[in-house]
Amino acid sequence: MISKFADMVKWSLVICLSPLLLLSSCSKKGSDGPGGGDYYFKLNVGGQSYTYTANSYATLSSSGDIYMAGIGGFRDMSVGNKNVASILVGSLSPIGQGTYKGLVYPGTSGNTPAVFFSWIDADGTTFSSLYQDNATNTVQITQLSSASVKGTFSGKIYNALATGSPAIAFTGEFYVKRVN
Predict the structure, then answer these.
(1) Cα 134 from chain centroid (whole Å)
(2) Region for residue 62 given its phi and psi (left: phi exceeds 0; alpha: psi -120 to 50; beta: otherwise)
(3) pLDDT in 10s for each residue of the chain, 180 residues
(4) Nearest to 174 by CA among 71, 60, 35
(5) How many domains is the chain partitioned into structurally?
(6) Which domain holds residue 33?
(7) Is 102:135 a contact under the CB 8 Å cutoff?
(8) How far apart are CA 69 and CA 149, in angstroms?
């Protein structure tokens, strides 16, 4: 089961970073956003709010028996891996409308969280969720179509390189264009 978690993290990087390349050639506007407006990925990190409107995305895939959704946004591709937020949702069933939290393999010795958060700040510092928060890190998908994904998220992230770093609240909402 540990290898499943490693595979999920590996796929999370592929899912969350590959749309950056796809979006560089996409239109910046979401013609069918709420009220006809832009797509968006809004987040609050430790009390600081960010909104990414021009560069937000969702991609759905599967690997073995795990179905995944990569959802995220970023401020500006020209600055590299800075100001990037991503969510990875994993499930044993196809991703659909509903609430995701806990473990992908509940009741087993598996340790694959159903929700994984990551955020790279303006300085390039990486923050991510930890296994022990699997019961409280939550993603709710309220709308899913072939064109877009809408929902909310909440949980905790930690400085990935600082052992024992304090938990930081990570909450927000998204209405993003599907790129696949």
Answers:
(1) 14
(2) beta
(3) 444 444 444 444 333 444 333 333 344 444 444 444 589 999 999 999 999 987 899 999 998 888 999 999 988 766 667 889 999 999 999 999 999 998 887 766 667 889 999 999 989 999 999 877 888 899 999 999 999 999 999 999 999 999 889 999 999 999 999 999
(4) 71
(5) 1
(6) 2-177
(7) yes
(8) 10
Are 70 and 88 within 8 A, CB to CB? yes
Integer Cα distance of 85 and 103 in angstroms = 21
Q: CA separation (Å) from 50 to 40, 124, 144?
A: 10, 15, 23
Two tokens, residue 77: 């591709």
Phi, psi of 17 (to 5 degrees): -95, -30
Look at the block and give the residue holding tokens 């509903």: 98
**Which residue has tokens 């659909």?**
96
Q: Are 87 and 80 in contact (CB under 8 A)?
A: no
Instruction: Give me the count of residues in the chain.
Output: 180
